[in-house]
Design a protein that fits this description.
With about 325 residues, this protein is mostly helical. A two-stranded antiparallel sheet has the order 1-2.
């Protein structure tokens, strides 16, 4: 029932998605036990307007993600399934539903994906690759390990069978351009010696195996992970039955999920960085659930997923009261 409901793109479905975002993200206005992280070393007190900004940004990322999934036929052409699963993965735990640099990085990674999928039919692959690198560079300003996703962009060029070597070079130029201006600014104000250590600290490997503060957050992480892994292996098994275009898009989505997940899990970044995985996970989940014929068990899993998210978000409000 739930999956079939979001398989169509009626305006009522969009209203339900907006309602879900509000239900999952508004409780942070009443339960803000932690500060909102704007940059890694600076904290500010809670501001409801910043939370409203986070909700609006999350909504637009949801729309962009759904547009990518439907435009390139990863999910049904007229469907909100990808948007629905983006909300589920991006709102699974309370620590995700706040403004953070990782939400801003997710926005630019979504734009990066738009350019990467355009590799397939681009007649100006060099310019498209530069644009992809530029969005990646902007994402890395908020999440420096994202700079390693240049390898993912190169993988995508190989998958789309691009033999234009200049596209690989212009990708790097696009990535470096934002950092050129940033480090030029630090150099101009004689703060370069302070900026480099702050940049490199993001690349320390994670030492804590379980970064979650509560058991419920850990349970939600396992639920999302197991469901996404199941979807990924199912799509891998179906690759041979897909046409060339859809097979390439699916491979790019799977590789992107792997690269981004490794970055978040391996490096010593805050747990809020998990929201970056929501976008590629939503593409995989939207594609998987749109192809399921027998929806009984699928609907049950999604229903339990929704129930756990409600509990995880609303229970802290009773403690506050």
């Amino acid at each position: 029932m739930i999956i079939r409901f979001f398989k169509t793109s009626y305006f009522s479905r969009l209203l339900v998605l907006v309602l879900l975002i509000l239900v999952f993200w508004l409780p942070k206005m009443f339960n803000h036990s932690g500060n909102i992280i704007l940059i890694n070393t600076s904290y500010v007190t809670f501001n409801p307007w910043l939370q409203l900004l986070a909700i609006i940004l999350f909504f637009f990322i949801m729309l962009f993600t759904n547009e990518i999934g439907t435009k390139h036929r990863l999910s049904d052409r007229y469907s909100f399934l990808t948007a629905f699963f983006f909300i589920l993965t991006g709102s699974a735990s309370g620590f995700l539903t706040q403004l953070s640099p990782f939400l801003l990085a997710t926005f630019f990674i979504t734009l990066l994906y738009q350019k990467i999928f355009d590799f397939q039919n681009s007649t100006k692959i060099i310019i498209t690759a530069f644009d992809a690198g530029l969005f990646l560079g902007l994402a890395s300003l908020f999440f420096p390990p994202a700079i390693l996703l240049v390898l993912f962009v190169w993988f995508a060029l190989l998958i789309y069978q691009s033999d234009e070597w200049r596209a690989y070079v212009t990708t790097i130029l696009g990535v470096l351009l934002p950092w050129f201006f940033v480090f030029s600014g630090y150099f101009w104000f004689n703060n370069l010696s302070e900026a480099l250590p702050a940049f490199l600290q993001y690349f320390h490997l994670r030492e804590i195996s379980n970064p979650f503060a509560g058991n419920m957050d850990m349970a939600m992480f396992l639920l999302v992970t197991l469901t996404t892994i199941t979807a990924a292996f199912s799509l891998l098994g179906r690759l041979s039955s897909l046409n060339i275009s859809l097979r390439q898009h699916t491979l790019v989505s799977l590789w992107g999920l792997l690269f981004i997940s490794l970055m978040v899990l391996l490096f010593a970044v805050p747990t809020q960085a998990l929201i970056i995985t929501a976008m590629p996970a939503a593409l995989i989940l939207g594609s998987f659930f749109s192809r399921i014929k027998k929806l009984k068990w699928a609907n049950l899993i999604v229903l339990l997923w929704l129930l756990f998210i409600f509990i995880n978000h609303l229970l802290p409000l009773f403690h506050v009261a």
